[in-house]
């Protein structure tokens, strides 16, 4: 299959269009096979009105019905063969499409990895530029800000952001599932009590389980 070979070597947008076109053709062939099957089944089950004439004998009618049934069976078998062939081609085409999308995803992942590497390379320079651009007294003399005040504000804003994120989440280990907004807002107060309760549950010794003794009766023969 030349298209499959092209997809294995390189995946382009044109290949995706061709694969979707082939999928559309296979769906169209499925509708055609269904229409032919319905027509053949109708011919097989419906008696031939021309054979009801008095010109034909009963033996001729019987022979005609047998031939018609035989040909209809042959056509139905051929339709089944074509349908199975179409299903096999459809599965093969789906495999090729999955392969094409997998190649595209791998290529995108490689591109994102390169971008990540570039970001990591320039991260120290960005950090140094941010540090030396701070308006603090230790770096830029004459300013009112200090490193201590900057650290205090940074820690406060970080804690506030963390508090808001945890409060707005409905599924987290900091509060119970289905908790109301008030309980979620009070998670810093309830969290120590929850930790202590879990520690007590783990440290508490469990009572030994009683053996499940069942009395067995033996019947003497």
Number of domains: 2
* Overall pLDDT confidence: 80
What is the number of E strands?
0
**Euclidean distance between termini CA atoms:** 76 Å
- Approximate helicity band: over 70%
Number of helices, where a helix is a run of at least 4 consecutive DSSP H or I residues = 6
Structural Rg: 39 Å
Under CATH at level 1, the class of the largest domain stands as Mainly Alpha
| CATH fold label of the largest domain | Methane Monooxygenase Hydroxylase, Chain G, domain 1
Please state the second-level CATH architecture of the largest domain.
Up-down Bundle
Order of helices and strands: HHHHHH
Overall 3D geometry? elongated
Report the uncertain regions: 211-221
Q: Sketch the major β-sheet.
A: none
Pfam families: CorA
InterPro entries: CorA_TM1_TM2, MgTranspt_CorA/ZnTranspt_ZntB
Protein name: Magnesium transporter
GO molecular function, one term: cobalt ion binding
